[in-house]
Amino acid sequence: MRGPVAELRAFLDAALVRPAADAAPDPPGTRARRRVVVTLTLVAGAAVLAWALRIQPGDELFYLATLGLAAVWALGALLSGRLRLGLGHTRRGSRTGRPVVQSLALGVLLLTIFLIGALVVARIPTLSEPVVELLDHARIGSLPVVLVITILNGVAEELFFRGALYAALPGHAVAITTVLYTLTTVGTGVPLLVFAAAVLGLVTGLQRRVTGGILGPVITHVTWSAGMLLLLPPVLDLVR
Prior knowledge:
With 240 residues, this protein is mainly alpha-helical. The chain is built from nine helices and two strands. A two-stranded antiparallel ribbon has the order 1-2.
């Protein structure tokens, strides 16, 4: 029987390192179309994201802007071509299946690490204050509405970044999608959001490489983002 460290190592190897499925590359014509579509979508999405996060908390325009952002990512992904769900390793590792439980576990692990880090960040005003201002959209506005929008954006972002954009790249797709995903958050002016995007982008990019599809990244992203929205405010309040 393996110990907890060995179990964790085996889990991370199966989830982020050892490919379970290889997606067949797109034909040249399809890849060329993807590249045009993803370029236009990146420009539009980055602009809408920067605008949405600069809207004052409590302004109902924030809901419209973030729904518009989800629509930009999702439409760009769907217009680019076919997207695959992908396959992951089963618990025994002898066969593959849809990476549902594995991706949920990875999302929870990532969420736990970030919440522990938040206990440190909360003691540094220059880092915590921009995060608190960002969370004010949920505190002042409607939390259920913000939660639904957060989930929709998480799904849409993965459809585009780990779906359409990843498939459009000829090589180094994990690195390039991570960098581009991170850059779309720079305009928000929230350093920790940029850092979180880099970490999340890397993890979901590795998942995309392992599973050959978007299902795993979608589940991990939504688990992490919904958990951060619901749990980060009380964690920060514990320290403040």
